[in-house]
Inverse folding.
């Protein structure tokens, strides 16, 4: 590398090349395997489009995305843990009132989500934005089915009051496969891995003076909790789902979010 | 991975994932750097076409291609060393007579290439095919300039007789840049690296009962010998280029190739 190379770039590239070479030496990579790798990376790049990012998917299923997330979002004990953002968030979802129903297609088992947004000392945070999104009962996000699902189905933003409480009705989410009709799906097949993510509700929780929290809560008991295709599960994020009988609502999932000051 | 995963695939993928994660941990890779990497890989895949393989180029400039070549072509002392094949070989070049001139465009400084194809014990190999190719005096291979250069310019195949000798006239090759108008070229720029390969003549030497030899001879004294953009230079492959005065021929480059039995 040249003398004027940016110091951080030099550090990253040195490490990358060393690990790449160590990988080849350790495995005694054959010419045919190298060629297969070149072809795989090429196919992965060529299936990418404005609607599809196969390299992020590759990073996800190799545990790289979660690792980078963990490196960059270290939190003290007691704070809610991060997990992957995923590709399905949409900015500027409708602002709703506490208790509103975000499920617009009438499908699925209705569930009440409620809890508090708290500081590390247990005090409620006022004015926190709880931005939520999930798949519908068929396992698809609204943006995957434009014209089929109502716009903003299973999405909404809720702003906390002085008590820090949030509550909304949605559905008990269902597990779904990541897109597995491309090179990454083929790879999962060769590795004997399924493409499923365990059922989860997405949260983006923000509040002035606090670090942004990107996380999910997972449905306890889901069959894919220990084999999430993208390694997104953390035990502290598995939420209770209690059976209730309250009108049409069948479930209640309580969960408190604890934010860290900036 | 599933229980039925191919053992070799499992070995390669385990090593790959471990090194990938170690790279991220060692560098404490940031979210922005990860995003840049995803974007870089995507651009690299998307510029690939039937005529261009940017991932091979990436492998080349990171020293990966030469490493894989070295791992898969270990040779005993005394045998000629391998180097990278490169993208410019064409099968079935014209078979020519010893001493023929392969330079059809009349450009460049004429050079006599001659030597022997030998076994490890020094005995000449009869019936060896010496398949040669180089760029022209402007630094381009014929396949890079169809319609500009004559077809088969600076290419040919020569079959040895009982004495194992080969000889042909071509030009003293010139250094040239690898394609640097894509993501890999941008990367080289950021790293303060030039895109040049030192001048070289390509050889593919085959003979019944012997291992295939893919190599170059390099022009001694070339300014890029110690900084080949693809790390292809081995000291034993630097050939002498002697000034001569023999008609139009200005140079003579003698080199013997030593093959290893299968």
């Amino acid at each position: 590398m040249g003398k004027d190379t940016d110091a951080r770039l030099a550090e990253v590239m040195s490490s990358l090349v060393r690990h790449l070479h160590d990988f080849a030496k350790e495995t005694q990579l054959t010419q045919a395997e190298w060629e297969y790798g070149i072809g795989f990376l090429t196919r992965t790049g060529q299936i990418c489009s404005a609607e599809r990012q196969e390299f992020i998917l590759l990073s996800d299923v190799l545990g790289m995305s979660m690792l980078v997330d963990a490196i960059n979002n270290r939190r003290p004990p007691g704070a809610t843990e991060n997990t992957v953002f995923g590709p399905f968030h949409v900015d500027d979802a409708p602002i709703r009132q506490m208790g509103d129903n975000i499920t617009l297609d009438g499908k699925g088992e209705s569930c009440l989500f409620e809890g508090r947004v708290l500081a590390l000392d247990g005090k409620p945070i006022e004015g926190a934005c709880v931005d939520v999104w999930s798949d519908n009962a068929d396992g698809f996000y609204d943006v995957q089915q434009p014209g089929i699902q109502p716009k903003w189905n299973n999405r909404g933003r809720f702003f906390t009051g002085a008590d820090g409480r949030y509550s909304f009705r949605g559905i008990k989410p269902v597990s779904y496969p990541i897109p597995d009709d491309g090179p990454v799906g083929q790879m999962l097949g060769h590795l004997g891995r399924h493409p499923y993510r365990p059922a989860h509700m997405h949260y983006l929780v923000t509040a002035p003076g606090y670090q942004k929290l990107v996380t999910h809560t997972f449905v306890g008991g889901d069959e894919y909790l220990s084999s999430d295709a993208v390694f997104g599960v953390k035990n502290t994020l598995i939420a209770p789902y209690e059976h209730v009988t309250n009108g049409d609502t069948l479930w209640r999932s309580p969960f408190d979010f604890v934010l860290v000051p900036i």
About this structure: Chain B touches chain A through 54 residues (CB under 8 Å). Chain B has five helices and twelve strands. The two ends of chain B are 37 Å apart (CA to CA). Chain B has one domain: 48-259.
